[in-house]
Amino acid sequence: MAGEAPVSAFPDGWAPGTWRLSGTSLDGGWLPIPVQGDADEVESWVVENTEALRGAWGDGWSEDAEEVVPLLLEASLEHRRPEDFLAFQVWPAPHPVCVFVHVALGVRNADDALPGPGDGILFESEGLGQGVLVPRTEEIGDASVVGYDILFTFADDVVVIVSVEPTFSDLLGFVSPSIQAFVSSLELVDPHDRTRTAEAPALLEARPGNSWVDSLA
Fold this sequence. Notes:
- With 217 residues, this protein is an alpha+beta fold.
- The chain has helices spanning 39-57, 63-79, 169-185, 210-213, and strands at 20-22, 30-32, 84-90, 99-107, 121-125, 129-140, 143-153, 158-167, 187-189.
- The protein folds into 2 domains: 29-92, no CATH class; 98-110 and 120-208, no CATH class.
C-alpha cells in the first residue's frame, strides 16, 4: 500500500537538498507546516497564523474559532513527519476544521510491494505523470474516517507519496478538488536538472481519480 512505503533515504550520492519538488495551490487556506522549533518559535508561529486566519475569515471568525484555531495550529506541528518534503494544514472554509496533507520524497526499499490491480485507481498528474490513488479508512471510536495516498514511482526506485490524513468523508469530498489540483501541479526535478515523469502503474483499469472522490459527496 502507498502509505506503507518508507521514503527515508535518497539514491547514493544524491543529497535531499539537490532535489526540487514544487507545486502550487490556487485556493486559499493552504498553510505550510514548518519543522517544529523551540517553544518561543512555536508560540510566535501560532500567534502569527491565528491572526492571519482571523483576518482571512472576517465575519466568519467566531468565539469557537478563537479558542480552537490556536490549538489546531499548535497540534499541526506534531503532524509533520520526518519523511515529509512538504506538509500542509488545509483550512477549506472559514470554520475551525482542517485537513492534513503530506508530500514525501525518497527511495523505496526493494522488498516494498507497490500497489497493483485492485489496490487503487489511476491518478493523472499534469506535472508528475501517472500515479495510483489508494483509499485508506480508519475507525475512530464509533466513527469511520477516510483518507488516501497517491503514489508516484520513478526510475532508481524514487517515489513521491502524497498522503491525505483520514477525516470525515463529507469534509474530504469538499476539500479533495483543491488537493487533487495541487497534486496535479507538482513537479519533480532531480539533481541533474531533469524533470521526472512517473512510470505507469500496473493497474487493471484506468479510471480518473476523481471518480472515487466524487462518491464521497
